[in-house]
Amino acid sequence: MFDFMNMMNKVKEAQAKIKEAQAKLVHLTAEGESGAGMVKVTVNGERKVVKIEMDESLITPQDKEMLSDLIVAATNIAMEQIDAKIKAEMKAATDGMIPNIPGMDLGSMFG
To answer: Carries keyword DNA-binding (predicted)?
Structure first.
């Protein structure tokens, strides 16, 4: 027989673990590079850009459009990497907490 109270306790426990994991996300970082490392963007687990580094040779008026494109590319790469880290962190936090229900992917709730 299905134990509803046990399931509710597991859900509450999972919610607590998720909140705890979310609080740790700010400490996760990921870096994206573009232009063979000439532009580097660092983002944190809250999906915020925290640092942009660029080679000084790119900082000229004639290279403004190219620099913009490189920043966008590096930012997108960093965001993809942090999304993967967030998903892994949340999966680890909830692993074994809730039964594997087909079609229910808790990791997708955080990306």
So the answer is: yes
Residue 83, class by beta-carbon neighbours within 10 Å (0-12 exposed, 13-18 middle, 19+ buried)? middle
Tell me which residue has tokens 């509450």.
12
> Which residue, chain included where needed, has tokens 């080679």?
55
Question: pLDDT tens for residues 17-60?
Answer: 888 888 888 899 999 999 999 999 999 999 999 999 999 998 89
Report d(CA 42, CA 54) in Å as an integer: 12
Domain residue ranges of the chain, discontinuous segments joined by +: 24-97
In the prediction, which pLDDT does 50 show? Answer: 95
Please name the CATH architecture into which domain 24-97 falls.
2-Layer Sandwich (3.30)
Whole-model pTM?
Answer: 0.71
What residues have CB less than 8 Å from 49, skipping those under 6 apart? Answer: 41, 42, 43, 75, 78
